[in-house]
Amino acid sequence: MFYYCSVCDYAMNIACVEKPLVLSIDHSKWHEHSLALFPRKACLTCDLCGLDDSTCPFYICPPCDFVAHQRCLSLPRVIRMSRHLHRISFTPSFDEKELSCGVCRRKIDNDYGGYSCIKDGCCYAAHSRCATQSNVWDGIELEGVVEDIGEDEEVEPFVRISDGIIQHFSHQQHHLRLDEDTSRDYDENKLCQACAMPIFCGNFYSCMQCDFILHEACANLSRRIHHPVHPHMLTLVARYDGVRNREDRCSTCIRLSVAGFFYECGKRECYFKLHVQCGIVSEPLVHESHIHPLFLTSKPGEYRKCCVCKILSSTHTRETFNCIECDFALCFGCATLPQKVMYKHDKHT
Protein backbone atom coordinates (compact mmCIF):
# COMPACT_ATOMS: atom_id res chain seq x y z
CA MET A 1 0.00 0.00 0.00
CA PHE A 2 1.12 3.57 -0.68
CA TYR A 3 -0.16 7.13 -0.96
CA TYR A 4 -0.64 8.55 -4.42
CA CYS A 5 -1.46 11.95 -5.94
CA SER A 6 -3.08 11.44 -9.35
CA VAL A 7 -2.74 15.13 -10.25
CA CYS A 8 1.04 15.19 -9.77
CA ASP A 9 1.66 11.50 -10.49
CA TYR A 10 3.53 11.36 -7.18
CA ALA A 11 3.67 8.36 -4.83
CA MET A 12 5.05 7.65 -1.36
CA ASN A 13 5.00 4.43 0.59
CA ILE A 14 3.67 4.38 4.16
CA ALA A 15 7.11 4.14 5.80
CA CYS A 16 8.34 7.31 4.04
CA VAL A 17 5.19 9.24 4.94
CA GLU A 18 5.68 8.45 8.62
CA LYS A 19 9.30 9.59 8.63
CA PRO A 20 9.97 13.17 9.76
CA LEU A 21 10.67 15.44 6.79
CA VAL A 22 14.31 16.59 6.69
CA LEU A 23 14.27 20.01 5.06
CA SER A 24 18.01 20.66 5.27
CA ILE A 25 21.07 18.44 5.63
CA ASP A 26 24.82 18.86 5.94
CA HIS A 27 26.61 16.34 3.78
CA SER A 28 30.28 17.31 3.53
CA LYS A 29 31.02 14.02 1.78
CA TRP A 30 29.37 15.39 -1.35
CA HIS A 31 29.11 19.17 -0.92
CA GLU A 32 30.63 21.88 1.25
CA HIS A 33 27.35 23.77 1.87
CA SER A 34 24.07 22.76 3.49
CA LEU A 35 21.59 21.17 1.10
CA ALA A 36 17.91 22.02 1.07
CA LEU A 37 15.10 19.66 0.14
CA PHE A 38 13.46 20.73 -3.13
CA PRO A 39 9.72 20.61 -2.30
CA ARG A 40 8.41 20.01 -5.82
CA LYS A 41 8.54 17.29 -8.41
CA ALA A 42 10.83 18.49 -11.18
CA CYS A 43 13.19 17.14 -13.84
CA LEU A 44 16.56 18.36 -12.59
CA THR A 45 19.73 16.48 -13.44
CA CYS A 46 21.52 15.02 -10.43
CA ASP A 47 25.18 16.02 -10.27
CA LEU A 48 26.13 12.67 -8.73
CA CYS A 49 24.48 10.25 -11.17
CA GLY A 50 23.76 12.41 -14.24
CA LEU A 51 20.08 11.36 -14.41
CA ASP A 52 16.95 13.53 -14.24
CA ASP A 53 14.83 11.00 -12.34
CA SER A 54 11.88 13.01 -11.01
CA THR A 55 10.48 10.08 -8.99
CA CYS A 56 13.17 10.46 -6.35
CA PRO A 57 13.30 13.40 -3.87
CA PHE A 58 16.37 15.58 -4.26
CA TYR A 59 18.36 18.22 -2.41
CA ILE A 60 19.86 21.38 -3.87
CA CYS A 61 22.37 24.07 -3.08
CA PRO A 62 20.96 27.19 -4.79
CA PRO A 63 24.16 29.30 -4.67
CA CYS A 64 26.20 26.52 -6.30
CA ASP A 65 23.51 25.09 -8.55
CA PHE A 66 24.28 21.68 -7.01
CA VAL A 67 21.56 19.00 -7.28
CA ALA A 68 21.60 15.52 -5.75
CA HIS A 69 18.99 12.78 -5.49
CA GLN A 70 18.32 11.72 -1.91
CA ARG A 71 19.39 8.14 -2.66
CA CYS A 72 22.55 9.28 -4.45
CA LEU A 73 23.79 10.89 -1.22
CA SER A 74 24.40 7.34 0.04
CA LEU A 75 26.60 6.35 -2.92
CA PRO A 76 29.91 4.69 -1.89
CA ARG A 77 33.25 6.37 -2.48
CA VAL A 78 35.39 3.33 -3.37
CA ILE A 79 34.12 -0.05 -4.56
CA ARG A 80 35.18 -3.27 -6.27
CA MET A 81 32.75 -4.40 -8.95
CA SER A 82 32.56 -7.55 -11.04
CA ARG A 83 33.05 -5.87 -14.41
CA HIS A 84 36.57 -4.59 -13.69
CA LEU A 85 39.72 -6.03 -12.11
CA HIS A 86 40.67 -2.92 -10.12
CA ARG A 87 38.94 -0.81 -7.52
CA ILE A 88 37.02 2.18 -8.81
CA SER A 89 36.32 5.44 -6.98
CA PHE A 90 33.71 8.15 -7.34
CA THR A 91 34.68 11.24 -9.32
CA PRO A 92 32.49 14.38 -9.54
CA SER A 93 33.35 14.79 -13.24
CA PHE A 94 35.54 13.34 -15.95
CA ASP A 95 38.37 14.70 -18.07
CA GLU A 96 37.59 16.12 -21.46
CA LYS A 97 37.66 12.87 -23.41
CA GLU A 98 35.00 10.60 -24.79
CA LEU A 99 34.20 7.72 -22.43
CA SER A 100 31.64 4.93 -22.42
CA CYS A 101 30.28 3.13 -19.37
CA GLY A 102 31.93 -0.25 -18.76
CA VAL A 103 28.58 -1.73 -17.68
CA CYS A 104 25.84 -0.44 -20.01
CA ARG A 105 28.30 0.60 -22.78
CA ARG A 106 26.54 3.94 -23.29
CA LYS A 107 28.28 7.32 -23.43
CA ILE A 108 29.29 9.07 -20.21
CA ASP A 109 28.51 12.75 -19.76
CA ASN A 110 31.78 14.25 -18.49
CA ASP A 111 30.03 17.03 -16.56
CA TYR A 112 28.41 14.67 -14.03
CA GLY A 113 29.62 12.19 -11.44
CA GLY A 114 30.55 8.57 -11.97
CA TYR A 115 33.22 6.03 -11.16
CA SER A 116 36.72 5.68 -12.60
CA CYS A 117 39.59 3.24 -12.03
CA ILE A 118 42.11 4.16 -9.33
CA LYS A 119 45.01 2.55 -11.23
CA ASP A 120 47.31 4.88 -13.16
CA GLY A 121 46.93 4.49 -16.89
CA CYS A 122 43.60 2.64 -16.68
CA CYS A 123 40.73 4.59 -18.25
CA TYR A 124 37.85 2.36 -17.11
CA ALA A 125 34.75 4.34 -16.15
CA ALA A 126 31.11 3.66 -15.28
CA HIS A 127 27.89 5.54 -14.57
CA SER A 128 27.08 5.90 -10.87
CA ARG A 129 23.86 3.88 -11.09
CA CYS A 130 25.45 1.21 -13.31
CA ALA A 131 28.49 0.70 -11.06
CA THR A 132 26.29 0.19 -8.00
CA GLN A 133 23.77 -2.22 -9.52
CA SER A 134 23.13 -5.24 -7.30
CA ASN A 135 24.31 -7.63 -10.03
CA VAL A 136 27.78 -6.06 -10.28
CA TRP A 137 28.49 -4.67 -6.77
CA ASP A 138 28.28 -6.54 -3.46
CA GLY A 139 27.28 -3.43 -1.49
CA ILE A 140 30.58 -3.06 0.40
CA GLU A 141 32.17 0.39 0.75
CA LEU A 142 35.96 0.08 0.51
CA GLU A 143 37.01 3.62 1.39
CA GLY A 144 39.71 3.32 4.05
CA VAL A 145 39.94 -0.47 3.61
CA VAL A 146 43.47 -1.65 2.78
CA GLU A 147 43.52 -3.62 -0.45
CA ASP A 148 44.65 -7.23 -0.18
CA ILE A 149 47.30 -7.42 -2.90
CA GLY A 150 47.77 -11.14 -2.37
CA GLU A 151 44.19 -11.87 -3.42
CA ASP A 152 45.05 -11.26 -7.07
CA GLU A 153 48.30 -13.22 -7.09
CA GLU A 154 48.30 -15.98 -9.70
CA VAL A 155 48.21 -19.53 -8.30
CA GLU A 156 49.72 -21.99 -10.77
CA PRO A 157 47.49 -24.97 -11.62
CA PHE A 158 50.40 -27.41 -11.88
CA VAL A 159 54.05 -28.00 -11.14
CA ARG A 160 56.24 -28.75 -14.15
CA ILE A 161 58.24 -31.90 -13.39
CA SER A 162 60.12 -32.07 -16.69
CA ASP A 163 59.56 -31.34 -20.37
CA GLY A 164 55.97 -32.45 -21.14
CA ILE A 165 55.33 -33.88 -17.65
CA ILE A 166 53.37 -32.06 -14.92
CA GLN A 167 51.80 -32.63 -11.53
CA HIS A 168 48.31 -31.03 -11.61
CA PHE A 169 46.65 -29.76 -8.45
CA SER A 170 43.56 -31.88 -9.19
CA HIS A 171 45.52 -35.13 -9.53
CA GLN A 172 48.49 -34.83 -7.22
CA GLN A 173 48.93 -38.56 -6.67
CA HIS A 174 50.21 -39.12 -10.24
CA HIS A 175 52.07 -37.25 -12.98
CA LEU A 176 50.50 -36.27 -16.31
CA ARG A 177 52.24 -36.52 -19.68
CA LEU A 178 51.50 -34.22 -22.64
CA ASP A 179 50.14 -36.07 -25.70
CA GLU A 180 50.72 -34.18 -28.96
CA ASP A 181 49.68 -36.99 -31.31
CA THR A 182 47.13 -35.42 -33.70
CA SER A 183 46.55 -38.65 -35.66
CA ARG A 184 44.92 -40.52 -32.77
CA ASP A 185 41.61 -42.35 -33.22
CA TYR A 186 38.52 -40.67 -31.80
CA ASP A 187 37.18 -42.30 -28.62
CA GLU A 188 33.83 -40.91 -27.47
CA ASN A 189 34.38 -42.36 -23.99
CA LYS A 190 37.60 -40.43 -23.48
CA LEU A 191 36.42 -37.28 -21.66
CA CYS A 192 38.37 -34.40 -20.21
CA GLN A 193 37.97 -34.48 -16.43
CA ALA A 194 37.75 -30.68 -16.26
CA CYS A 195 35.19 -29.70 -18.93
CA ALA A 196 33.63 -33.18 -19.34
CA MET A 197 33.92 -32.84 -23.14
CA PRO A 198 35.35 -35.47 -25.52
CA ILE A 199 38.95 -35.21 -26.67
CA PHE A 200 39.07 -35.43 -30.46
CA CYS A 201 41.58 -32.77 -31.44
CA GLY A 202 44.39 -30.77 -29.93
CA ASN A 203 46.88 -31.68 -27.23
CA PHE A 204 45.96 -33.21 -23.90
CA TYR A 205 47.58 -34.45 -20.71
CA SER A 206 47.06 -38.07 -19.69
CA CYS A 207 47.95 -39.73 -16.42
CA MET A 208 50.96 -42.03 -16.56
CA GLN A 209 49.29 -44.50 -14.18
CA CYS A 210 45.50 -44.22 -14.63
CA ASP A 211 42.80 -42.97 -17.03
CA PHE A 212 42.77 -39.34 -15.83
CA ILE A 213 43.04 -36.90 -18.77
CA LEU A 214 42.81 -33.14 -19.32
CA HIS A 215 42.76 -30.94 -22.40
CA GLU A 216 45.96 -28.90 -22.47
CA ALA A 217 43.82 -25.74 -22.27
CA CYS A 218 41.89 -27.13 -19.28
CA ALA A 219 45.11 -28.06 -17.51
CA ASN A 220 46.09 -24.39 -17.76
CA LEU A 221 42.84 -23.01 -16.32
CA SER A 222 43.46 -20.31 -13.71
CA ARG A 223 42.96 -21.44 -10.12
CA ARG A 224 41.31 -18.15 -9.18
CA ILE A 225 39.39 -15.71 -11.37
CA HIS A 226 37.23 -12.59 -11.26
CA HIS A 227 34.18 -13.09 -13.46
CA PRO A 228 31.99 -10.24 -14.79
CA VAL A 229 28.74 -11.74 -13.49
CA HIS A 230 29.83 -12.07 -9.84
CA PRO A 231 31.51 -9.52 -7.53
CA HIS A 232 33.59 -12.02 -5.50
CA MET A 233 36.71 -14.03 -6.31
CA LEU A 234 35.99 -17.51 -7.71
CA THR A 235 38.15 -20.57 -7.06
CA LEU A 236 38.57 -23.58 -9.35
CA VAL A 237 37.32 -26.77 -7.69
CA ALA A 238 38.06 -30.24 -9.05
CA ARG A 239 35.29 -32.78 -8.87
CA TYR A 240 34.84 -35.60 -11.33
CA ASP A 241 32.86 -38.30 -9.48
CA GLY A 242 29.86 -38.00 -11.82
CA VAL A 243 27.42 -37.76 -8.90
CA ARG A 244 24.45 -35.50 -9.62
CA ASN A 245 23.99 -32.88 -6.93
CA ARG A 246 21.27 -30.24 -6.98
CA GLU A 247 23.59 -27.68 -5.36
CA ASP A 248 26.05 -28.06 -8.24
CA ARG A 249 23.86 -26.23 -10.76
CA CYS A 250 25.75 -23.61 -12.75
CA SER A 251 24.57 -20.11 -11.85
CA THR A 252 24.69 -18.78 -15.42
CA CYS A 253 23.40 -21.60 -17.63
CA ILE A 254 20.70 -24.24 -17.37
CA ARG A 255 23.06 -27.22 -17.06
CA LEU A 256 23.88 -29.16 -13.91
CA SER A 257 27.53 -29.66 -12.93
CA VAL A 258 27.23 -33.43 -13.13
CA ALA A 259 30.94 -33.92 -13.71
CA GLY A 260 34.08 -31.92 -14.25
CA PHE A 261 35.59 -28.87 -12.59
CA PHE A 262 33.77 -25.69 -11.68
CA TYR A 263 34.46 -22.27 -10.23
CA GLU A 264 32.80 -21.46 -6.92
CA CYS A 265 32.59 -18.47 -4.60
CA GLY A 266 34.38 -18.82 -1.29
CA LYS A 267 32.31 -16.21 0.54
CA ARG A 268 30.22 -17.52 3.40
CA GLU A 269 26.60 -18.26 2.43
CA CYS A 270 27.33 -17.44 -1.21
CA TYR A 271 26.55 -20.44 -3.41
CA PHE A 272 27.56 -19.01 -6.77
CA LYS A 273 29.09 -21.62 -9.12
CA LEU A 274 30.20 -21.75 -12.75
CA HIS A 275 31.07 -24.52 -15.17
CA VAL A 276 34.59 -24.01 -16.48
CA GLN A 277 33.03 -23.28 -19.90
CA CYS A 278 30.96 -20.45 -18.42
CA GLY A 279 33.90 -19.34 -16.27
CA ILE A 280 36.20 -18.63 -19.21
CA VAL A 281 33.71 -16.85 -21.47
CA SER A 282 33.63 -13.09 -21.01
CA GLU A 283 32.95 -9.80 -22.75
CA PRO A 284 33.20 -8.55 -25.40
CA LEU A 285 32.03 -11.86 -26.84
CA VAL A 286 32.62 -12.34 -30.56
CA HIS A 287 30.29 -15.18 -31.51
CA GLU A 288 29.54 -16.80 -34.86
CA SER A 289 25.80 -16.46 -34.26
CA HIS A 290 25.91 -12.66 -34.56
CA ILE A 291 27.76 -10.02 -36.56
CA HIS A 292 28.30 -7.58 -33.64
CA PRO A 293 30.28 -8.06 -30.40
CA LEU A 294 28.10 -8.92 -27.38
CA PHE A 295 28.23 -7.47 -23.87
CA LEU A 296 26.82 -8.26 -20.42
CA THR A 297 24.52 -5.24 -20.13
CA SER A 298 21.56 -6.79 -18.27
CA LYS A 299 20.17 -4.83 -15.33
CA PRO A 300 18.82 -6.40 -12.12
CA GLY A 301 15.39 -7.89 -12.76
CA GLU A 302 15.78 -7.71 -16.54
CA TYR A 303 14.94 -10.93 -18.37
CA ARG A 304 15.77 -11.38 -22.04
CA LYS A 305 14.96 -14.32 -24.28
CA CYS A 306 17.91 -15.93 -26.02
CA CYS A 307 17.70 -15.38 -29.78
CA VAL A 308 19.22 -18.81 -30.48
CA CYS A 309 17.41 -21.27 -28.18
CA LYS A 310 14.38 -18.96 -27.66
CA ILE A 311 14.39 -19.72 -23.92
CA LEU A 312 13.81 -17.08 -21.24
CA SER A 313 16.62 -17.61 -18.75
CA SER A 314 15.65 -19.15 -15.40
CA THR A 315 19.16 -19.24 -13.97
CA HIS A 316 20.44 -17.56 -10.81
CA THR A 317 21.92 -14.55 -12.60
CA ARG A 318 19.56 -14.37 -15.62
CA GLU A 319 22.46 -12.73 -17.47
CA THR A 320 22.66 -12.74 -21.26
CA PHE A 321 25.21 -11.45 -23.73
CA ASN A 322 23.50 -8.51 -25.44
CA CYS A 323 24.16 -6.54 -28.59
CA ILE A 324 24.35 -2.77 -28.15
CA GLU A 325 23.66 -2.24 -31.85
CA CYS A 326 20.41 -4.29 -32.05
CA ASP A 327 18.10 -6.45 -29.91
CA PHE A 328 20.10 -9.67 -30.18
CA ALA A 329 20.66 -11.62 -26.93
CA LEU A 330 22.58 -14.85 -26.30
CA CYS A 331 22.33 -16.97 -23.16
CA PHE A 332 25.37 -18.56 -21.50
CA GLY A 333 24.17 -22.02 -22.48
CA CYS A 334 24.28 -21.19 -26.19
CA ALA A 335 27.39 -19.01 -25.89
CA THR A 336 29.39 -21.96 -24.52
CA LEU A 337 28.27 -24.60 -27.02
CA PRO A 338 31.30 -26.02 -28.89
CA GLN A 339 31.76 -24.69 -32.42
CA LYS A 340 32.91 -28.13 -33.63
CA VAL A 341 31.89 -31.62 -32.57
CA MET A 342 32.79 -35.16 -33.59
CA TYR A 343 30.24 -37.90 -34.29
CA LYS A 344 31.30 -41.54 -34.09
CA HIS A 345 29.64 -42.44 -37.41
CA ASP A 346 31.28 -39.57 -39.32
CA LYS A 347 35.02 -39.17 -39.77
CA HIS A 348 34.74 -35.38 -40.18
CA THR A 349 34.21 -32.68 -37.54
Walk me through what this model shows.
This protein has 349 residues and is mainly beta. Among the domains are: 18-69, no CATH class; 75-147, Wheat Germ Agglutinin (Isolectin 2), domain 1, CATH 3.30.60; 158-219, no CATH class. It has helices at 14-18, 128-131, 216-219, 276-280, 332-335, and strands spanning 2-5, 10-13, 24-26, 34-37, 58-61, 66-69, 78-79, 88-91, 114-117, 125-127, 158-162, 165-168, 176-179, 204-207, 213-215, 224-225, 234-237, 262-265, 273-275, 294-295, 320-323, 329-331. The strands form six sheets. It has a five-stranded antiparallel sheet. It has a four-stranded antiparallel sheet with strand order 3-4-5-6, with no helix packed on it.
Which features would summarize this protein structure in a list?
349 residues; mainly beta; Wheat Germ Agglutinin (Isolectin 2), domain 1; 5-stranded antiparallel β-sheet; 5 helices; elongated
**What is the level-2 CATH architecture name of the domain at 75-147?**
2-Layer Sandwich
Tally of helical segments: 5
Radius of gyration: 25 Å
- Write down the CATH topology of the domain at 75-147: Wheat Germ Agglutinin (Isolectin 2), domain 1
Query: How far is the first residue's CA from the last residue's CA?
Result: 60 Å
CATH class of the domain at 75-147: Alpha Beta
> Which spans have pLDDT < 50 for at least 5 consecutive residues?
none
Any idea what the shape is? elongated
Strand order of the largest sheet: 11-12-13-14-15
- The total of beta strands comes to 22
Q: What portion of the residues fall into strands of 2 or more residues?
A: 15-25%
Q: Could you estimate the helical fraction of the residues in percent?
A: under 10%
The succession of helices and strands, N to C, reads EEHEEEEEEEEHEEEEEHEEEEHEEEH
Query: What is the mean pLDDT?
Result: 83
For the sheet with most strands, the description reads: 5 strands, antiparallel
- SS-based class: mainly beta
